[in-house]
Amino acid sequence: MLPEPDELAGALLDLAVPHEDIDTAARLSRRVADDPEALACLERSVALLVADMGTVRAPVELPAYAGRCGATARYFPLYVFAAALPYVRAYHRDLGVPEEISRRTLADVGRGVALHRRRHGTGGLLKPRWLYLHFHGELYHLGRLQFQRTRIGSWTGDAAAAAGLPVGLGDPALGVHVPDFLGPLTPAACDRSVALARAFFARHFPREPYAVATCGSWLLDPQLKRYLPADSHIVRFQDRFRLSHLPDEPQDLTPVRYVFGTTDVPLDRLPRRTRLERAVVDHLRGGGHWYVGHGWFGWEETRTDSNG
């Protein structure tokens, strides 16, 4: 199940793992190959990951690496994804998913490794759970955005029903995600992504009628409008969505983590070069809090920005 080191290197390259991490991952894979318990853990992980491929399921927990080497534990999820790669590729081929979309979707593994190094200063991927969606056929990268096949929750269901849409709890929905390291979040790029997604899901998942798209993100905290101009990309992105829920519990570190790449630096030492950096820092230093907003829009709506 574990590819040989040269095959593993090729698979990791296909998954956009940064070059500086491929040599280490290939070298450490020998520890897994020589450890029957670790190989059994790998086999169980892959089996759980690809079970019922393509169904929209509750989050799964994969077994943790059974060995003692901390460095190998950090890289172990990469071995799971490399071993699962043939299964998800076969699923994409059976659906008729274009190779380019399949490749860009699965390349999120490399983004995860880059984020890990940015935040922790080491190679590996300690929190791979997000990527389980990609390798189970539930999430696709289309243009600037990612779209997750999901179900309508109570907040969105209540808000959409109140707006007159014939939807309810548990109906199909598409979750919108904004990946890192992919350039500006321009309205034009978002328009193109939504258009690509409408065509993609109508073609490949015609039995799942989507009435709404949803998003849960710090980008949807309405307080950002106090600091950013109305024509900023973030505000224009916010205005695509109707706010369905703003939790009582703040998540102050979430925007700090995404904007600065770390939560270990004191606020007074963080840079304030851009409007967004100043907004995140000044709001917290002034005693404010940040929240993860939850929003939605009708999937067939045509409005595209704050003026639409």
UniProtKB/TrEMBL annotation:
Pfam families: GNAT_C, NAT_N. GO terms for molecular function: acyltransferase activity. It comes from the Bacteria. Residues 6-137 form the N-acyltransferase N-terminal domain. InterPro entries: GNAT_C, NAT_N. Transmembrane segments: none annotated. The keyword Acyltransferase applies. Keywords: Acyltransferase, Transferase. Residues 139-297 form the GNAT-like C-terminal domain. This is Acyltransferase. It comes from Streptomyces galbus. The lineage of its organism: Bacteria, Bacillati, Actinomycetota, Actinomycetes, Kitasatosporales.
